[in-house]
Input
Amino acid sequence: MSETGAPIFDLAIVGGGLVGCSLAVALGRQGKKTILIEAQSESSIAQSWDERCIGLNAGSKHILQSLDLWNGLAPSCEPIASTHISERGRFGAARFSAEQAGLPALGYNTPLRAINELLWARAVASNITIRRPAKIKGMDVLANNVKLQIEGADSGSIHAKLVVAADGAHSAVRRILGYAAATRDYGQSAIVTAVRPQYPHQGIAYERFLKSGPIAVLPKPDDDQGHACSLVWTLDTDEALARLSLSNNHFLSQAQDAFGERLGRFLDLGRRQSYPLHQVINEQIVGPRTVFVGNAAQSLHPVAAQGFNLGLRDAATLASVLTDVSDPGDAGLLSRYLSRRAQDRQAVADFTDKLVRLFSNAVPGLRTLRHLGLLFLEFDSPVRQHILRQNLGTRNSSDFVMRT
Output
């Protein structure tokens, strides 16, 4: 206990989303005295064929295996055997396959419900304290710890040697500390839903670039009602709002026209949701006894499904750096974390941003260059291998194992 009687923790994780909860599970295995503070109350998400999914790449599978989570999650995942990347109106396409990469799958389309429920169940069972629903109302950075004022479940104050901000793109920790973030509004929104195609997806993830942004159709597990795929359609925000108001049949017709008939006709449509797209990059991801991870550190455009995978590598690297240390908030440790994350973080942020700009640009002649680039990626080359490793998250996968 502190001099004021407030409990002292090794770490306080603010935000119990996928990244924050993954880190909590890892730290619980290390025996760190950890508190997880989550603003949202517990909610139950019903399983349904059109539920939202998230793409896990091979590097993320490696991390989840190190936490002994993968075996419990794998039955809910649909393996991605290959990807097909194309641009509307052009015959060229870039294809990547798990067989060529020497892997059982390039990635896994995973229901958010499944991974969220598994992480929370493991967090509750581990040796950590959970306060939910609760919010951070104030922070006072002291010499040896941070005093946090909590509102909600068990309101009051606590002390932590290190505060980990995992509280999303609109981080309350960032706001309280007055840290700056560079924000780019893409003027786009993503419509997320599910479709039932006429033909089986055969494990192929499609991404087709249109003038207004990409449309992605990703494999989901079949069920007793037929085949199923996730559909993520990026559009100018006004156009997205207009399409949300369409009838199911009208929306399906327009989605069919945008995607084509590689999977035959779209036969049914799930519930539609829309999310505005921004890039938010924290200008400072470590500070005195504070570190930012996941979307609180960098929130990216979903064009290459890199956001959660990058955030999970944040959590894994931090857990590795904190192994067998007595003071998790030591400035030298945080500097080591910063140096280990800088290159990966910058590379992925630049990759997604440039991809969005490249395929949303109508400059004369650029369309031809894009087409030639897709054709070039069909041939084995250092560029193709670099992009493959980038998307797999396996460039230095041993650095990202959750050491416990």
Remarks:
- The first helix runs from residue 18 to 30.
- Residues 165 and 173 are 6 Å apart (CA to CA).
- Confidence is low (pLDDT under 50) at residues 361-366, 368-377, 397-404.
- The chain has twelve helices and 20 strands.
